[in-house]
Amino acid sequence: MPRQIFQLKVSLTDVTPAVWRRVLVPGGYTLDRVHRVIQHVMGWRDCHLHCFDIDGSQYGEPDPDGESALLDELDARLDAVVGKGGRFRYTYDFGDWWEHGVVVEDVFGADPDERYPVCVDGAQACPPEDVGGPFGYRVFLAAIADPTHPDHELMRGWIDGREFDRAAFDVGRATTLARRLA
C-alpha cells in the first residue's frame, strides 16, 4: 500500500485578508514534524511554544516540570489522530496567541515521483513574529502604511526598516523551507 498523503489547509484565524497555506504531508509524520512544516510554510521562525488541539486532546512538547497536561507530540502520528474531513487547531506563541485552523481536505496515495512535504498554494504574508497577535498585527499594518502614524517608526524598526508586503507569498520558497527543515 502506498504511503498516505494528507492535504491540509492551514488558516490563520482572526486575520484579514486571510493568511493560509495548502500543504501535502505524509500521514506518518508525527505532530512535531507537522509543527515544523506549519512553521515554515506559514513563515514563522519557531521561537515560541505551540500546541495542537485535536478532538479534545492537546499535544505539544511535554512540560519537564509536569505542570501542563500536554500529550507528547513525538508519540502522535497525524494519521492516528485525524482523518479525511477532520479539523483541529494549532496554536503558536502563547503570548501573541496565533491560532490556526487546520482542515484535512483530502487523503490519497503518495505520488512516487513527488517529494513531500510540498506547499501547493497559499495567500498573504505571515505576520512578523512578536507583533502582538491579531490585534497587534492590525495596529502594525496601519502604522507601517501611514508615515504620520505615531507608531510608524517603531513598527518599521520591528521589521528592521524593510518593506512589508502583506500580499507576498512564494509557494516555491515555502516548499523549499518545509522540505529542508521538516
Automatic annotation (TrEMBL):
A Pfam family hit: PRiA4_ORF3
InterPro entries assigned to the protein according to its UniProt record, in alphabetical order: MM3350-like_sf, Plasmid_pRiA4b_Orf3-like
Domain Plasmid pRiA4b Orf3-like, first and last residues per copy: 4-171
Highest rank taxon of the organism: Bacteria
Record's protein name: Plasmid pRiA4b Orf3-like domain-containing protein
